Amino acid sequence: ALSTTEVDLAPIKVGQRITVVWRGKPVFIDHRGQKEIAAARAVPMNQLVDPQFDKDRVKKPEWLIVVGVCTHLGCIPLGQKENDPHGDYGGWFCPCHGSHYDTSGRIRKGPAPKNLLVPDYAFLTDTTIRIG
Ligand code: FES
Known about the structure:
By secondary structure, the protein is mostly beta strands. The protein has one helix spanning 34-42, and strands spanning 5-8, 17-22, 25-31, 63-67, 90-94, 99-102, 107-109, 121-125, 128-131. The strands form three sheets. A three-stranded antiparallel beta sheet has the order 1-9-8, with no helix packed on it. A hairpin with a 2-residue loop joins strand 2 (17-22) and strand 3 (25-31). 30% of the residues are buried. It binds FE2/S2 (inorganic) cluster. FE2/S2 (inorganic) cluster binds at residues 70, 72-75, 94, 96-99, 110-112.
């Protein structure tokens, strides 16, 4: 597997999520709308299992980029496809043991101990990122 992956974000519409593979792992790219951003930013830190501000998990509010591997036992959470369940917090739902992640990819309910990992990435242009 390549150690870095470049992704053109321009074709990804608001509300759309795509999956790319980086170092053999799925990376979820979510073009968030205002509603998802507002929901992520409204959560008080004391309600979080693994407290992290949304602003510290993104470089641009409209783009959430996380490794799509559940921090419990490593299943791939659902939520990337339109008809997938998104869990109780509008993000992702891990079907293996029922972990719910929010619109910032933070764990909100279920056995996972940590938020979905944010990989190292950089914006090369306004609409291109390099992961890794
Ligand atoms: Fe996701 Fe157990 S692996 S909840």
